[in-house]
Write a structure and sequence with these properties.
single chain; 9-stranded parallel beta sheet; two-stranded antiparallel sheet; 4 helices
Length: 215
């Protein structure tokens, strides 16, 4: 069955929607087919609103290009988005899990609002100017990734796997020291490690301080 799929513009007035047709049993699966086609063919999606898409579990979206888009109520559990390029986008109420892979992706100026991202993989990804708001993003795998600029607002970002990860200007380092009774100098040392080294190194240093304070 053929379905006509429309992604509206993020601009309420004067914006150009994205319109396509796909053959699939249901409209939701047709949306998935359209997005997978865009990823395969390198078709960039710009200034669009993607809302309430629940049939992207396990989707093959490697290489998808999104710019100035808003994704809301989208389920990316188990989806493969390796090599994606996402710029100036907002993700709201988006779900990802341990099966969601964004290895080698590029995310620049991306905001996550009220998302559930626990366990998602960003190996060797280039991440810059990220913002997490009221988001659960625990146990992310950032092995070999580069993170330059990250801000966390009322979010949980614990248990990251950050072997060989380069972190710069990361405000999330505050989550490592917020619950500890440390002096300002000790906190500064932990922040410095998070900025110049890795999150693992900062966490290791912090555990050492905790152990020392207990003796």
């Amino acid at each position: 069955m053929n379905h006509r799929i429309t992604f509206p513009s993020v601009h309420s007035m004067g914006g150009r929607p994205f319109v396509a047709e796909a053959s699939a049993p249901t409209p939701d699966l047709a949306v998935r087919e359209v997005l997978e086609h865009c990823a395969r063919e390198g078709i960039a999606l710009e200034y669009l609103r993607l809302h309430d898409i629940q049939d992207l579990k396990g989707a093959r979206l490697d290489g998808l290009k999104l710019s100035n888009c808003k994704l809301s109520s989208v389920n990316l559990s188990g989806a493969s988005l390796a090599g994606t390029r996402v710029e100036h986008c907002t993700f709201a109420k988006v779900v990802a899990d341990r099966g969601t892979r964004l290895d080698g992706s590029v995310l620049d100026s991306v905001t996550f609002e009220d998302c559930l991202l626990n366990g998602a993989t960003f190996k060797a990804a280039s991440l810059s100017s990220l913002r997490f708001e009221f988001t659960e993003a625990n146990a992310l795998d950032l092995e070999g990734a580069s993170v330059d600029g990250l801000r966390s607002i009322q979010s949980n970002l614990s248990g990251w796997k950050a072997h060989m990860c380069r972190l710069k200007s990361v405000e999330a380092a505050e989550s490592l020291v917020a619950s500890m009774n440390l002096s300002e100098n000790q906190k500064a040392a932990v922040r410095t490690l998070a900025i110049t080294g890795s999150r693992e190194a900062a966490a290791h240093y912090l555990r050492g301080l905790e152990a020392a304070s207990a003796t």
